[in-house]
Amino acid sequence: MKQVDIEMAAVTVRNLPDAVHRALKVRAARHGHSTEAEIREILESAVCSSERLKLGSALAAIGQEFGGVDLEIEREKAPSQVVDFE
User: Fold this and answer.
1) Number of domains in the chain
2) What is the pLDDT of residues 15-48, one digit of tens each?
3) Does the structure show a pLDDT above 70 at 81?
4) Rounded Cα distance, 51 and 76, in Å
5) pTM assigned to the model
6) What is the CATH number of the domain that holds 31?
7) Which residues contact 24 (CB under 8 A, 6 or more apart)?
């Protein structure tokens, strides 16, 4: 089995006011995190919130407004084949 390398992005924030930086450091200390870890957590919670639109759920809700959709889907019974990318 091949090992998959996951690349992580780096972001630089310029012109961050000193007061904001101090507040981040205080908040991080309160949570027992480094300032960098606290910033990652803040960013992740901002963009991955449970409030975001979930497309599948939204489409299902629209379908229900119109009486729903009766989908009789029969799955393929043949086993899937392994794909070799080499």
Assistant:
1) 1
2) 999 999 999 999 999 999 999 999 999 998 888 7
3) yes
4) 35
5) 0.51
6) 1.10.1220.10
7) 35, 38, 39
Could you tell me the two tokens for 79?
A: 């086993």
**Domain extent at residue 38:** 18-62
- Enumerate residues 6+ apart whose C-beta is below 8 A from 34: 28
- Among residues 14, 42, 16, the alpha carbon closest in space to that of 28 is found at 42
Average predicted confidence (pLDDT) for the chain? 84
Residue type, 65: E
**Whole-number Å distance between alpha carbons of 49 and 26:** 23
- The structure tokens listed for 10 are 């780096």
With contact defined as beta carbons under 8 Å apart, do 28 and 38 qualify? yes
Is 75 inside any structural domain?
A: no
